[in-house]
Amino acid sequence: MTEQIGRRVPRKEDRRLLAGHARFGADVQFPRMAHVRVVRSPVAHGTVSRIATEAARAQPGVIDVVTAEDLPADLRIPVRLHVEGTDPGERLQPVLASHTVRYVGEPLAVVAAEDAYLAEDAAELVELEIDELPARLDAGSGDDEVVADFGLGYGDVESAFAGAAHVARLEFSVQRHSGVPLEPRALTVDYVPATGGVEIFGATKVPGFNRRVLAQLLDVDESVIHLHAVDAGGGFGVRGEFYPEDFLVPWLARRLRRPVSWVEDRAEHLVAVNHSRQQRHRLEVAAAGDGTILGLRDDVWHDNGAYVRTHGVIVPELTLSMLPGPYRVPAYSGRVRVALTNKTPCGTYRAPGRFEGTAAREQLLDLVAAELGMDRVELRRRNLLTPGELPHTRAMHTLGTELVLDSGDYPRLLDRALDTVDELGWRELVARGRAQGRLLGLGLSLFLEKSGLGPHDTADVEITSTGRVRVHSGGTSLGQGIETVLAQIVADEFGVSVDRVDVVNGDTTLQPFGTGSWASRSTVVAGSAVRGAGRAVALRVRELGAEVLEAAPEDVELADGVVRVRGAATARALDLAEVWLAAQPGSPWLRDGEPAGLSARHRFAVDRMTYPYGAHVCVVEVDPGSGGVTVLRYLVAYEVGRAVNPALVEGQLRGGVAQGVGGALLEEFRYDESGQPQCTTFMDYLMPTASEVPAVEIVLCEDAPATTNPLGARGAGEGGLTGAGAAVASAVSDAIGRPAMTGLPLDPGSVLAALGTVTGPAAASADGIP
Amino acid sequence: MKDQHLVTLTVNGREHELVLESRRTLADTLRQELGLTGTHLGCEHGICGACTVLLDGEPVRACLVFGVQADGREIRTVEGLADGDELNDLQQAFSRHHGLQCGFCTPGFLMLAEAYLAGGGSADPGEVREVVSANLCRCTGYQGIVEAVTEVAARRREQAAKAHD
Ligand code: FES
Ligand code: FES
């Protein structure tokens, strides 16, 4: 069997998804299931004086109505990703609000009924008396509740700025938007009368952490809580964190002693699930006359919404720690103030902190180049870290790890991207368009990513009765294709095809030590764990096989799923099912005290991340009449170290670009002055369709295998998004002849405003790629 | 008392008699009454297209149609595309072109595309892109979807032309 790693193997997930046989959270149904509807605050800020539930209770089919009074006192959801030195204290989100509501959409009560329609009817009859208070809606307005204020940096920034020939300054803002997976959240919970435990379907991302939190909040042993693997309709950072509903639904199942189903609707999703991205940056760069960066400063206001949720203040931390990007920045200081506002609380969205920071930094670099009259590419080339300078340590910590840029060749990746742009003739395309008087622009951004966060993950591999290879991994399937990737990794240990491998992700009983899928870590960390477990089982297969074949272990080989004596083509061979049989209890081949079965557990631990990197290039056209921006061409160059499945890596990058284009041009959670959300349907929250997303050229680089894991892989979950806001902004500013844009989204209004100060089509940029 | 109606739905060629409340959507009817959970709900307000099914051959959003409105009519859902274990040409093309990731939008795109193909849809990628822009996908960036539908359109037209000769 040829190696499976590195091949474009068709996905194992596809068949069930294409046939309509997948099982998403809302597809799991039990007899006598109660249906839950959450009653949410209709105001942004207020004091709750009364919640009257009698009318709702009196409705036919209503089983129960619950408010904070019915719950144990002051239940709050803890932080999963703690940043040292910060303390969210009183601002952790309660499971149900009792006295004060702090955003529209905050859960206040829960109705359980025999049917979802009845639950929704009854929820409307829950009467809320809330005295409205003034809503705080802007971070950095002067009247702020700052929940964290911290800095990161290194080097002597003061002297860098004092001695600089040139200082460029830019204010750049990024709007509130988020992951918005196509499947809303859904939880089905079955109650187990014998143990008082719960079987949970639908919480997909970090099941191990969620089980721990739920056990603590319910005050039960973790062993009576079982989170099952289900399909999930996209994660993007927001799905599967521990939300109030993740307590309420299991708690209700125990209270009612029956199965309970909760399916979020889209309007709820858009106000309840983590928002993200909203930041305002004030950046300054000190440069020598030749464009060499001497120092960098950033002062960030981060709007975190009403509470600190499971992500704590990790997004602001990542913003600061990743801001210097792939460049040689001798001195850096970043400060962030995390402000609470009366809007939906925030968490991570794919490429958290990097989408925002990359857009701000890259626009700053475009500005410096313009101010110094330099070519934008030349400026970047001058400041990119070279292979000889790696590994490069920045005296900062992020996600609890030391920031060491492991290896790579950043200038080479830039060359490969630009060579491809030349081959594709994009510069000519822009020039031709401009000659016709159209507003075309070419944009470029470079970025640094991070992936493969530890500290560990665990995997089990076993051989089953028909000789199949079964994997119980600690990752979770969010649609990214991780089942296929893990199958490829383990298949090579036995020389079988992925068709002989079954992967179960995210089941807390089958894999109690799993740490989940997030931060582009699964291929790297879960993959390395699976490889280790597979390798251990393969060794056992060879040992036991040798025993049966009456050969020395070093004389047998395992290939194509068969153990045979090396070089002896005619000798007896054993397939995996036969070796499995030899490992059964009572088998004459098992020695005293030797465990039965063919299985192994492996824990992979790593204390550092690996840092992938890449470039985005795009061509846009601006309509001077409407201010509308059309993305005509798009390219991503990305260093993935080693692609386990190149097709899936490309898919990750393409999907990221689509979301990035949405974030650059369309998507925004807007609020009115009283804090009412204005985007609670897909009519108002605009996600890109096939008409807005161009085909994406991919330059997939495997020039610099990661040194932090045995696969050499770097994660690929986020790089399609990281540079997108930056590249589109760069292209728009090029199209309209401005040195830099001042924020996202580049919606018609802001583009027209920027256009207002220029006359006629843009002057062609001084350099070739702007 | 609830207003209940006795209706007959033919789903994927099979007839079902059901008692339905008039406000129950076709999507909920398929998913809950008939256990056909391949039809997904992404918005329940007619924008995302995840719930697309064919009603007498026409693509409709099953979240916007009431079950009772389908009385006496033919419904086709994603579960009816494969022939036993054998995925149809469009399903296979989606897999080949990596036209799905999480797969939540996929049933809707498949049904939308089936209607387009059944109407003799052209294999022009621009036109296909426009057709599939009726639905939302959050994962793939649409490229694989456009490629898959375009390829099948070309192949089915070829087959139709041959059958004509
Ligand atoms: S669920 Fe019907 S269109 Fe979105
Ligand atoms: S594949 Fe996930 S929404 Fe389309």
Automatic annotation (TrEMBL), chain A:
Keyword Transport: no
Lineage top rank: taxon: Bacteria
SUPFAM superfamilies in alphabetical order: CO dehydrogenase molybdoprotein N-domain-like, Molybdenum cofactor-binding domain
Stored InterPro entries: Ald_Oxase/Xan_DH_a/b, Ald_Oxase/Xan_DH_a/b_sf, Ald_Oxase/xanthine_DH-like, AldOxase/xan_DH_MoCoBD1, AldOxase/xan_DH_MoCoBD2, AldOxase/xan_DH_Mopterin-bd_sf
Keywords assigned by UniProt, alphabetized: Molybdenum, Oxidoreductase
Any GO MF annotation of the entry: oxidoreductase activity
Gene3D superfamilies documented for this protein: Aldehyde oxidase/xanthine dehydrogenase, a/b hammerhead, Aldehyde oxidase/xanthine dehydrogenase, molybdopterin binding domain
Protein name: Xanthine dehydrogenase
TrEMBL record, chain B:
Keyword Acyltransferase: no
GO molecular function list: 2 iron, 2 sulfur cluster binding; metal ion binding; oxidoreductase activity
Gene3D superfamilies (UniProt xref): 3.10.20.30, [2Fe-2S]-binding domain
UniProt-listed InterPro entries: 2Fe-2S-bd (IPR002888), 2Fe-2S-bd_dom_sf (IPR036884), 2Fe-2S_ferredoxin-like_sf (IPR036010), 2Fe-2S_ferredoxin-type (IPR001041), 2Fe2S_fd_BS (IPR006058), Beta-grasp_dom_sf (IPR012675), Diverse_Oxidoreductases (IPR051452)
Protein keywords: 2Fe-2S, Iron, Iron-sulfur, Metal-binding, Oxidoreductase
Pfam families referenced in this protein's UniProt entry, alphabetically: Fer2, Fer2_2
Pathway the protein contributes to: Alkaloid degradation; nicotine degradation
PANTHER family with a match to the protein in the record: OXIDOREDUCTASE WITH IRON-SULFUR SUBUNIT, XANTHINE DEHYDROGENASE IRON-SULFUR-BINDING SUBUNIT XDHC-RELATED
Protein name stated in the entry: (2Fe-2S)-binding protein
